[in-house]
Amino acid sequence: MNLPPPRPDAGPLRRMCWIFPDRESTRATDVWHAMFWDLYAEVAEDLGMSWTRHSPDAVAVDCTQRGRPRVYVDDEVVTPEDTLFITALYSLPYQQMDIFNQYALSAVLQQAGFYLPFPPETSLIGNDKLATLLHLGGSPVPPIPTVRIGTGRDVSRHLYEAALGNMTYPAIVKPAGWCGGGGINLARSQGDIRGLASLAQGGDTTLVVQPYLGDGTVDYRVYVIGGRPHTVLKRTPQPGSAVANASHGGILEFAAVPDELAEATAYFAERLPIPFFCVDFLHDGQRFWFSELEPDGVIPGVPGDPDRTVQRDVVRARFTAYRNAHAKHLADTAGGTPLFTPPTETS
Q1: For residues 175 and 201, is the Cβ–Cβ distance under 8 A?
Q2: Whole-angstrom Cα distance, residue 89 to residue 81?
Q3: Is 203:176 a contact under the CB 8 Å cutoff?
Q4: Are strands 171-175 and 147-149 parallel, antiparallel or unpaired?
Q5: Could you read off the pLDDT of 42-76 as tens digits, one per residue?
Q6: Which residues contact 143 (CB under 8 A, 6 or more apart)?
Q7: What is the pTM of this model?
Q8: pLDDT per residue over 218-236, tens digit each?
Q9: Which residues on neighbouring strands pair with residue 233, listed in sequence order?
């Protein structure tokens, strides 16, 4: 693992190891490198750290000596003092076989004393859209009404329809735990939901059903860093599209945080005491709705930020918040004696 030279103000943290299932296609890998992975590594190096990707099987743990676990990443020893692990869960269809390994590894690393910006329980809340809305149900911005249905072997019995009595149509039907705009469909009747549920049965994919807010609904992603709203990624769908993600042709731009969303952030930060997460809101032309939580939301390059100034600033603030939280973790586990003075947000 090539590490950048240490900086005097960087403290002991040298590595940020992102645990991510190693199942991307070559095409997707090229896109992610260009869009944000390479920039993540550059910003980390500027801060005197490294940012590297590793599949769950790259981590090995030797616990043959009681109370002295030794953790290896690609054959190299890492310690809670010099390394943190980014362990937000990913569960796209081609990653299904990795879900248990991701959760189990997160639990092992947590028990071994490592600082995790996304502890396992956070991924449980963030990966299921209804779990998110229930956990954050007191949001000052109302959560969008949601029904969650399973699609197992008895889907043809339509027993889930008992939960759809209050649903209005057209409705959005999407997987409960995917990301990136994948699997989002518009259902104009309960019959459409039957067809989508039968297709989802092929992958035993749990679905959520939500009222469609109308054409032109705009998605506002608030980056919450260190408990405060930092920046908004505004995503506007193409005409006639129900999806605003870039993968579906959505128009992306960074924007100031609307006052209503800035005021709501205090609630989210209290309920999610982690250094970085994203909250997605939908605006139907008249009001905001709380849509979902993205614990490891992408910080992309956008056309309106050609020099990547805003993107770099958000990433830098995120990694600085990780470093500060890691310092606090070390201080807390050392009995309250700080091992170094945490840098400021502007360092």
Answers
A1: no
A2: 23
A3: no
A4: unpaired
A5: 999 999 999 999 999 999 999 999 989 999 999 99
A6: 133, 136, 137, 289, 290, 291
A7: 0.91
A8: 999 999 999 999 999 999 9
A9: 221, 254
Helix (H, G, I), strand (E, B) or coil at 143: strand
Contact criterion met (CB below 8 Å) for 165 and 158: no
Q: Indicate the pairing of strand 171-175 with strand 185-187.
A: antiparallel
* Beta strands per DSSP E along the chain: 15-19, 50-54, 59-62, 70-73, 76-78, 83-86, 147-149, 171-175, 185-187, 207-211, 218-225, 228-236, 251-255, 276-283, 288-294
**H helices of the chain, where?**
26-32, 38-46, 99-111, 120-127, 129-135, 190-201, 259-271, 309-333
Residues, the chain: 347
Q: How far apart are CA 315 and CA 301, in angstroms?
A: 11
Burial bucket for residue 67 (CB in 10 Å: 0-12, 13-18, 19+)? exposed
Is there a contact between 40 and 16 (Cβ–Cβ < 8 Å)? no
Cβ-based neighbours of 156, under 8 Å, separated by 6 or more: 198
